[in-house]
Design a protein that fits this description.
478 residues, alpha+beta, 5-stranded parallel β-sheet, 22% strand, elongated
């Protein structure tokens, strides 16, 4: 079969590539141990026929050293620039090894490429025959799918997604189409001429990733690798044009000739701790703007915050008494059950203000994961943003993870106000933009926190009036 013959070509090229100079006798032995061996020894005439086919198909020239009578790849330097050939050989090599060593299958993990499972073969067939295709396309933006007639020019694999580059019969502008957004592909009988002199590699030479934008032209971008970032950039360059221009003990600078597209910014931000854009200034400014927007995105949930105690606020004396009188359980795996009325009024505050929750209760000493589980399992309102630390007045901060905690005296009692103040200092970049309210049954707060404090009656928990006041505090502009 043609497919079996193709596999033999790839096996032969890959074996010689990995083995280096190898004799024909050793090749025959390896062939007989391979998963493709069909019981027929590798004949010398067959081997030479395969050599010619490999040169024609892949551009890989297998030469013989007449002095040693060993075979080797003659154009290894040229081969390094052929991404498709190397990708094909590497993929075959791993697949063949997995086939020969079944026990390794569970120990070699690769990323799946969903878009290769449906239409890639059809598009490759259309490209081979230069046939137009009819595509039903569903973009991420917009709900309605639509039909296209395309002339498929080339495909590229990038970031676990296959892309088709194609133009239309009445429009020679090349556009990009993701295969995983295609709902249907049908080959037509209409042929087209592949553009004379067109090179996909040259077309994408200044692009980063998959997209080419008319309004974003390639430019010289200088980046700096810091610490381990230098090693990452040296071993896995951001772009084929990358070259190192400065190296010091602490950092290295690199230059790239590339279009600063969204994909480029994503790649830089992915290594934001150890890669810095130095120039040009408009690219550096764009990176800074993205970082600022990202910070706003993460800090927007801190614009309104509820510092929340449990005992005497959600866990009320009234509710405990009622359940005890009704002979109902008082607690679950986390502790005392919360008063539904108090929880409902907390929900009103959250709905009206979109405030996030910071736990100040002593329950927090069981840790963040435990509190997250409680919030999830009890279906409590609002986004749980965190817990406060624990401190003693007049002493060094106390580590809540210590096995033993000191017994504080009257003057060294735990002060929630200090914990709240420190949380605000650590987590709110612009303090005056954060509105907060403190719901507690005890006033253990700092003087400046008193205007934001609502004292909750431990008998009944959060009331409708408490909720109204909390909403007013959270919505009042500074």
């Amino acid at each position: 079969m043609a497919s079996d013959l193709f596999k033999k070509y790839v096996w032969l090229a890959d074996t010689i590539r990995r083995a280096g100079p190898i004799s024909f006798a050793d090749l025959r032995k390896r062939w007989e141990r391979s998963s493709l061996f069909d019981g027929k020894p590798l004949a010398l005439r067959t081997f030479h026929n395969h050599r010619e086919a490999i040169d024609e198909l892949f551009g890989i020239r297998i030469a013989c050293n007449e002095r040693t009578n060993c075979y080797y790849i003659a154009n290894t330097d040229d081969l390094q620039t052929r991404n498709l050939t190397n990708w094909l050989l590497d993929s075959f090599s791993i697949g063949n090894m997995l086939h020969e060593a079944q026990m390794l299958r569970s120990r070699i993990l690769v990323e799946t490429v969903p878009s290769a499972k449906v239409f890639l073969t059809d598009l490759l067939e259309a490209m081979h025959a230069n046939r137009q295709v009819e595509v039903i396309y569903q973009p991420f933006t917009g709900e309605a799918s639509f039909g296209l007639t395309l002339r498929p020019l080339f495909v590229k694999l990038y970031d676990r997604r296959w892309y088709l580059y194609a133009d239309k019969p009445n429009d020679a502008k090349i556009k990009l189409y993701a295969l995983d957004r295609m709902l249907a592909v049908r080959l037509t009988d209409v042929r087209f001429e592949f553009p004379a002199g067109f090179s996909p590699e040259e077309y994408l030479s200044g692009a980063f990733g998959a997209a080419v934008y008319d309004d974003v032209r390639p430019c010289t971008i200088r980046i700096r690798g810091i610490g381990d970032g230098v090693k990452y950039l040296r071993t896995l360059p951001l772009h084929a044009s990358q070259r190192e221009i400065v190296a010091t003990e602490y950092y290295a600078d690199f230059e790239l000739q590339v279009a600063p597209t969204y994909e480029f910014y994503q790649a830089v931000l992915a290594r934001y701790l150890d890669v810095e854009v130095l120039s040009p200034l408009f690219v550096r400014d764009e990176i800074e703007s993205m970082i600022d927007n990202l910070a706003v995105h993460y800090h927007q949930n801190k614009r309104r915050v509820i510092f929340l105690n449990f005992d005497g606020v959600l866990n009320t004396e009234r509710h405990i008494a009622a359940r005890r009188q009704a002979a109902l359980s008082l607690s679950d795996e986390y502790g005392y059950l919360f008063d539904p009325s108090s929880v409902a009024n907390l929900q009103k505050i959250v709905d009206a203000t979109e405030a996030s929750i910071i736990i100040t209760s002593s329950w927090r000493l069981e840790g963040c994961e435990r509190m997250e589980a409680l919030w999830r399992d009890r279906k409590l309102p609002g986004l749980l943003l965190g817990i406060t630390g624990r401190h003693y007045t007049g002493k060094e901060p106390f580590n809540i993870w210590d096995d033993e905690e000191p017994d504080p005296g009257e003057e060294d009692r735990i002060v929630k106000g200090v914990d709240i103040d420190q949380w605000l200092q650590q987590h709110v970049r612009i303090p005056f933009r954060c509105r907060y309210v403190i719901l507690d049954d005890e006033n253990d707060l700092l003087p400046e926190q008193q205007p934001y404090f609502i004292r909750i009656d431990p008998q009944v928990g959060i009331t409708e009036e408490d909720a109204r006041r909390a909403i007013q505090i959270l919505k009042t502009k500074s």
